[in-house]
UniProtKB/TrEMBL annotation:
Name this protein carries in UniProt: Glycosyltransferase 61 catalytic domain-containing protein
Biased composition (Polar residues): 330-354
Domain of life: Eukaryota
Location (main, coarse): Golgi
GO CC annotations, alphabetized: Golgi membrane
InterPro entries: Glyco_transf_61_cat, Glycosyltransferase_61
Domain Glycosyltransferase 61 catalytic: 282-432
Topological category with respect to the lipid bilayer: Single-pass type II membrane protein
Protein's organism: Trifolium subterraneum (Subterranean clover)
Transmembrane regions: 44-65
Length: 536
C-alpha cells in the first residue's frame, strides 16, 4: 500500500519519526497541552497559561519548529485579543466572514493552518492550484487597459494538521491559492459545477496508523465539516482508496457527495466557497466551546453509532440466518425430540451471560503484549465478567470493532495506537489502560485525558518495574527501570527503542485484580442505577 512506502521514506532521514506511534516530540506536545489548559481554565488564569505556552514554545521553537512558524503571529493573537473575542463571540474564528473574491488564511493555529475562499473558485490540479477569479466584464473599456491575469493574492498551504512537526509536513503536498483579476473570456471553463462548499485536506503524513487517522484526519474533518449538514464535497490530496473504504461509513455521514481525488482529477471543479485545511482542537477531542451548535466529542461518537448501525444490523441478520440454518441442519441429522430441550437450556445460559458485565481485552502481539493474558482472562471470568479478546488488525473492519466495544462495559489494553478504539466505548463505561514503563506521559495525554472527556471512567494502570520484561534485561538499579523519565527525556529514539519496541508486560495479577474489582463493582452499580432510572 502507498502509505507503507511513505513511512520508509520518512524513517530514513530523521530517526525520531514514528511509524506506529503518537508519542513523538514530547516537549513540543507539552506546549500543545498547555494550549488546551488555557482553554479550559477560568478566564483569569488564561493569561498565565498563555505565558507558559509562549515561553515553552519560544524555548523549543528553534529545535522543532520550521520557518513557517511565526512567533509574531502568536503574539498578535495575545491575551487582549483573546479576551475580547470571548466577550463578542467565542466561535468567531479569524476567517469567519470572508468577502467574496478574497482569500483569508488563519495561520494562528498551533496545529494547522486554514484558508477560506469565496467567489468564483476553480481547481487546477496539474499546477496544484485553486484559483479564485475576480473577473472584469468584456464591455468595460477601462478593463482592457488593466493587465490581464493580474495576481491579487497568492497563499500557499499544506492542508495537514501536524503543522508543528516539520519533518512530516515536508512530505505533504502544498497547494497554491491564487486570487486573480482576469478578463472573463480567459477563465478556464467548469467541467463540474458544485452548488455546495468544498473542504480540501491531505491524507498523507501518518495516515495508515489508526490513532493518526482519527486524531489528524477524521475528527478534524468532523470539526470542520459537520456544520454543513452533508452539503459539502471533500477534495482529497494523497487520496487512497483503502482509506475511503475504511472510513466510508463515517464519510457518508459527513458528506453526501463522492470525494474527489484532487491530484488525479484533471477536470476543473468549480465552487463558490472552499475551506482549505482542517480545524483541530486537541488530542482525540472536540472542544464544544469552539463548535457551532455546541457539538462535543459525544456528538462525534453519536455520529459513529449512526454510521456503523446499518452495517452492524446487517451482520446480526447474517448471523441469525446462519444460526437458523445450523439449527435446521441439526434437526435433520438428529430427527429426535431430545434436541428441543437442549436448545432451551442453551438459551437459558445465554440469558445469564447477557446479564454479566462484558469485558474486552484489546490485545497486542509483538511488542507491548500482555504475556499472561490467558491468566488475566481467567481472573476476569472468576470476578464475574463475560470476557472477549479482540485482536484488531489493520484490515479489521471498524464496524466489527465498534460492535464489540459498543456492547462492552470494560475495555483493557496496553498503551498503543489501538487504544484509539476507546472512542467506540459508550460514555460511562470503563477503560483500563495498562501503562508500560516510560509511557506514562503519552498514555495519559493521548488516551487517558481524551477518554475522560468522552465521559469514560478511566483507570491508568502504571506497571511496576517487576511487571516489565525489561526487569529481566537490566540491572535493578538501571535508570531504565528506576527513572524512565530520565531516559525518555533523551529523545524519541530512546523511548521508541527501549520502551515501545522491546517491552512486554506480565501483569501482577494480585495488584491488577483490585482494579478489575473496582471496574466490576462500578459496572454493577451503574446498571442498577440505570434500572432505577428506567423504573421511575
Ligand atoms: C489583535 O489581532 C489583530 C489581528 O486580528 C492584530 O492586528 C492586532 O495587532 C491585535 N491586537 C493586539 C492588541 O494584540
Ligand atoms: C456591461 O457593463 C455594464 C456597466 O458598465 C454592466 O451593467 C453590464 O452588466 C455589463 N455587461 C456585461 C455582459 O458584462
Ligand atoms: C488518486 O490519484 C493518485 C494520483 O495522485 C493516483 O496515484 C491514485 O491511483 C488515485 N486513486 C484512485 C483511487 O483513483
Ligand atoms: C486528464 O488527463 C488524462 C491523462 O493524464 C487525459 O487522458 C484526459 O483526457 C484528461 N482529461 C481532461 C478533462 O483534461
Ligand atoms: C454546551 O455544552 C456543555 C457541555 O458540553 C453544556 O454544559 C452547556 O450548557 C452547553 N451550552 C449550550 C448553550 O447549549
Ligand atoms: C450501541 O449500543 C447502544 C446501547 O446498547 C444501542 O442502542 C446502539 O444501537 C448500539 N449501536 C450500534 C451501532 O449497534
Amino acid at each position: 500500500m502507498v502509505h507503507h512506502h511513505r513511512y520508509h521514506q520518512l524513517r530514513k532521514p530523521t530517526e525520531y519519526i514514528i511509524k506506529d506511534e503518537e508519542s513523538q516530540n514530547h516537549v513540543v506536545m507539552d506546549c500543545s497541552s498547555s494550549v488546551y489548559c488555557k482553554r479550559t481554565q477560568p478566564k483569569l488564569l488564561s493569561f498565565l497559561f498563555l505565558i507558559i505556552f509562549l515561553s515553552c514554545c519560544y524555548v523549543f521553537a528553534p529545535f522543532f519548529l520550521g520557518p513557517s512558524f511565526s512567533l509574531s503571529l502568536l503574539y498578535s493573537y495575545g491575551p487582549e485579543n483573546d479576551s475580547n473575542q470571548d466577550v463578542v463571540d467565542v466561535k468567531a474564528s479569524a476567517c469567519s466572514s470572508v468577502s467574496s473574491g478574497t482569500i483569508c488564511c488563519d495561520r494562528s493555529g498551533y496545529r494547522s493552518d486554514i484558508c477560506v475562499m469565496k467567489g468564483d473558485i476553480r481547481t487546477h490540479a496539474s499546477s496544484s492550484s485553486i484559483f479564485l477569479y475576480n473577473s472584469i466584464s468584456h464591455n468595460n473599456s477601462v478593463s482592457r487597459t488593466i493587465e490581464e491575469d493580474q495576481v491579487l493574492q497568492h497563499e500557499k498551504i499544506k492542508p495537514y494538521t501536524r503543522k508543528w512537526e516539520t519533518s512530516v509536513m515536508d512530505t505533504i503536498d502544498e497547494l497554491n491559492l491564487v486570487a486573480k483579476k482576469v478578463n472573463s473570456g480567459n477563465v478556464q471553463g467548469c467541467d463540474v459545477q458544485h452548488d455546495v462548499p468544498a473542504v480540501f485536506f491531505s491524507n498523507g503524513g501518518y495516515t495508515g496508523n489508526v490513532y493518526h487517522e482519527f486524531n489528524d484526519g477524521i475528527i478534524p474533518l468532523y470539526i470542520t465539516s459537520q456544520r454543513f449538514n452533508k452539503k459539502v464535497v471533500f477534495v482529497i490530496l494523497e487520496y487512497h482508496s483503502w482509506w475511503i473504504t475504511k472510513y466510508g461509513d463515517i464519510l457518508s455521514h459527513l458528506s453526501e457527495f463522492p470525494p474527489i481525488n484532487f491530484s488525479e482529477d484533471n477536470r476543473t471543479h468549480c465552487f463558490s466557497k472552499a475551506i482549505v485545511g482542517l480545524k483541530i482542537h486537541d488530542e482525540l477531542a472536540v472542544d464544544s466551546s469552539l463548535m457551532e451548535g455546541n457539538k462535543s466529542i459525544v456528538d462525534f461518537r453519536n455520529l459513529l453509532d449512526k454510521a456503523y448501525s446499518p452495517r452492524i444490523k446487517g451482520l446480526i441478520k447474517d448471523e441469525e440466518r446462519e444460526a437458523q440454518e445450523k439449527l435446521r441442519q441439526q434437526r435433520q441429522i438428529s430427527l429426535s425430540p431430545s434436541s428441543e430441550p437442549e436448545s432451551k437450556t442453551s438459551q437459558g445460559s445465554q440469558q445469564i451471560a447477557q446479564t454479566k458485565p462484558k469485558l474486552v481485552i484489546v490485545s497486542r502481539s509483538g511488542s507491548r503484549a500482555i504475556t499472561n493474558e490467558n491468566l488475566l482472562v481467567k481472573m476476569a471470568e472468576e470476578i464475574g465478567f463475560k470476557v472477549k479478546v479482540l485482536k484488531p488488525k489493520k484490515t479489521t473492519e471498524l464496524a466489527k470493532i465498534y460492535r464489540v466495544l459498543n456492547e462492552s462495559d470494560v475495555m483493557i489494553g496496553v498503551h498503543g495506537a489501538a487504544m484509539t478504539h476507546f472512542m467506540f466505548m459508550k460514555p460511562r463505561s470503563v477503560f483500563i489502560q495498562v501503562v508500560p514503563l516510560g509511557t506514562n506521559w503519552a498514555a495519559d495525554t493521548y488516551y487517558g485525558e481524551p477518554a475522560r472527556k468522552l465521559g469514560l471512567k478511566y483507570i491508568g494502570y502504571e506497571i511496576h518495574p517487576k511487571e516489565s520484561s525489561l526487569y529481566r534485561k537490566y540491572d535493578k538499579n538501571d535508570p531504565i527501570l528506576k527513572d524512565p523519565d530520565s531516559i525518555t527525556k533523551k529523545g524519541w529514539e530512546y523511548t521508541k527503542k527501549i520502551y515501545l519496541d522491546s517491552q512486554n508486560v506480565k501483569l501482577d495479577l494480585r495488584r491488577f485484580r483490585k482494579r478489575l474489582h473496582r471496574a466490576y463493582e462500578y459496572t454493577i452499580l451503574r446498571s442498577k442505577l440505570n434500572l432505577q432510572h428506567q423504573q421511575q
